[in-house]
Protein 1
Amino acid sequence: MSWDDVRSLRAQGFEVGSHTMNHVDLGIVAGDQARTEIVGSKDRLERELGGAVSFFTYPFGRRHQITEENRQLVEEAGFTCCLSAYGGSVAAGDALFQLKRTPVSPWHISPYQFGFETMLERS
């Protein structure tokens, strides 16, 4: 996507969130490098879009790829919440910096199948 494409989506009401600068594995990357990836992606998006970016999603968001140190960096960067990639539904009262998400992939052959799979993940 070009920046104009991203701006167009935002103008149409889509929420655009941050995902690190270089799609790094935050289960491996830590310290200053992680801070640069997290904060840099937020700063760049906000500059390009001319507005606040509130949401962060881990590029590789399995449980073992989300460290408490990096979760804290996401919160300190000023995000409202962040999402994992290990599946599941969000419920009222869930911790805002430990939200689950159901990834969309070619496995989902229709919106109905996606909905069915999502319902199965609820617990």
Protein 2
Amino acid sequence: MGGGFEKYIGIDYSGAQTATSSLKGLRVYTATPATPPEEVAPPPSRRKYWSRKELAEWLVEQMNGPERVLVGIDHSFSFPLKYFEHHELQHDWVEFLEFFQMCWPTAAPHGIHPHR
């Protein structure tokens, strides 16, 4: 490794439950230039796996620390054309982002629009 970063974080961002649900497929790994990747356990709780909310809060802590951090996320950012057709969206990035943020306001509790 190298490139001027002190910490590397890799995230397997699988799963489709809500922001507070524990997701079996959501896994987190860290490494440094001197250490191999190690899985990071979720915060202590009754749940066995990370939730998206816990991960987001943990990432904020990591990014606000003194180390330069590079984060890689294994996450699909594409949507099938049927999604655009179903919601009558143009193939336009800005329109898509506005619609998506309306339906999935990640700052809202559970990250779900109440009228979705």
Protein 3
Amino acid sequence: MQRLAAGLVLVLMAAASTGADGSKLRKPRLDLRATPRMAFSPVNVFLTAELVGGDELEDYYCPGLEWNWGDGAKSVRESDCPPFEPGRELERRFSAEHGYRRAGDYEITVTLRRANRSLAVASARVNVRPGLGEVSAP
């Protein structure tokens, strides 16, 4: 019985990853760009996350985003979209801005989520150098 259940799961997974014409569906890849990547403090960094390539999969439709800024701060964007319909295009570009007031090397991570599942993760590094007037910690 367990073997039958495991086989059924594999068949369902295979069906879910093929298109109506039987072709294999490809997952999009998530890229993240930070501008500027190096700056003096204080600085606002603009980030663009982009789903690149892949098919218009329902799993990637209307995701929530979780931004981890690398300085202890996090931001969450919940999604609120109409129901998915075949042929609907995915939103592929997401942007955010974050301010860094202190020098440091920061690794920024964005996670696309849907139904409490992580779909894709991307990261970028930002180097912030001490700017004029920055008070260094004792």
Protein 4
Amino acid sequence: MTIRQLYDPAGLQRELRANGVPAAVTFHGNDPRLSCRPYPAGRALLRRIFPADARNPYAAVEIHPSALPPGAAVYLNDTSNSDGYLGLTIGLAYTSKQCTGS
């Protein structure tokens, strides 16, 4: 899956979940890690799930769902602010009712 725009967190979360990716997505400082338990992951696993592809400059985030370990979910949090800071926290969390709805 390739994410090209980050403007509708609820819609993106629905789309990810509809495509079989357990996900928690929030923007503007509402960090999903507050309701999610972090899933321990090293750089190698994160690179398999969220590969950086310099050949695809239009992708904000690329996700390879098949690389997700059992019980793991994707979390995305836009940490951009009005002072011109652009940021996106990406990581893994354990799937749970309060985090991913399942």
